[in-house]
Design goal:
The protein is α+β, with helices and mostly antiparallel strands. The protein has eight helices and nine strands. It has helices at 30-37, 72-88, 93-100, 104-107, 126-133, 185-200, 205-212, 234-242; strands at residues 2-3, 48-56, 112-117, 145-147, 150-157, 161-169, 223-228, 248-254, 257-264.
């Protein structure tokens, strides 16, 4: 899905004669490696936090999917069951979120629900704010948090950000597409492929974004700035965070249309 740009040639390694042999370190056990990666940390910025969640909804809760029939007590019990699994193995949280969370958007991002500062914390997640900021990075709340939309297994994830720019090509019926837009999905895909060819031929990304992108970022040459995990359409976010600086994606489809994404140096 991703088309990498050119990379610098690898530097030659020093010969064995130049470098003394180092003693081999014992292989780290997978469980130990996971534990080390999830060690609790103080946040770099105490006023900014990333939330990773598993939402267990119940019938009548805000935004509860129609398929949810459990009552509030059953939802709390299920959240406690899932929390016990996370406490036993914190690395299991992404899989549990994608398979069990009743919040479709964050579930599609392995549970990432957003990265925000205290001052711009969204009202939707008001119930999570104080419990989340009370946690250390990589720490999970010891009991489910009750929100308007259900019981939440709440984890404070490390703040990760990526800077990028994109060209968005909407089509009739895509999310937020103007009602008078006539472009079909096939035409949008074909235009994305044409623009990719133009970029490969050396045309300027910013200029192509200004002329072609159906997004408010067009006037900035497609620049969306630096954003944390949990704020973008799942396929867009996965692509952006997996790109290296200077790499460009192929045509990435989201509910909004087709995107051409390029990762920029961090701001």
């Amino acid at each position: 899905m991703l088309a990498a740009c050119s990379k610098p040639a690898p530097q030659p390694e020093p010969s064995a004669a130049e470098t003394p042999a180092a003693p081999e370190a014992p292989a780290e056990k997978p469980a130990a490696a996971k534990k080390a990666a999830l060690a609790l940390q103080e946040p770099k910025d105490p006023n900014e936090a990333c939330a990773q969640v598993v939402v267990v909804a119940y019938k009548g809760a805000k935004f509860a999917p129609d398929a949810v029939t459990r009552d509030a007590a059953a939802a709390k019990a299920e959240a406690e069951r899932l929390l016990a699994q996370v406490m036993a193995d914190p690395s299991a949280l992404p899989k549990l979120a994608s398979e069990h969370s009743d919040a479709p958007t964050s579930a599609a991002r392995n549970g990432y629900a957003g990265t925000h500062t205290r001052d711009d914390w969204p009202d939707l997640h008001a119930a999570l704010k104080e419990p989340l900021f009370a946690l250390k990075v990589n720490e999970t709340a010891k009991s489910p948090v009750e929100a308007d939309y259900g019981y939440v297994v709440l984890h404070r994830c490390p703040v990760e950000k990526a800077t990028g720019r994109h060209i968005l090509l909407r089509y009739k019926g895509a999310k937020k597409a103007p009602e008078d837009l006539k472009r079909t999905k096939d035409e949008a895909r074909a235009l994305a492929e044409k623009l990719l060819a133009d970029l490969a031929a050396g045309k300027d990304f910013a200029e192509l974004a200004k002329k072609n992108s159906d997004d408010g970022s067009a006037e900035r040459g497609g620049n969306i700035g630096s954003l944390g995990r949990g704020l973008l359409a799942p396929a867009f976010e996965e692509t952006l965070f997996n790109l290296k600086v200077g790499e460009r994606s192929g045509a990435v489809e989201t509910d909004y249309g087709f995107h051409i994404i390029e990762r920029l140096p961090d701001e």
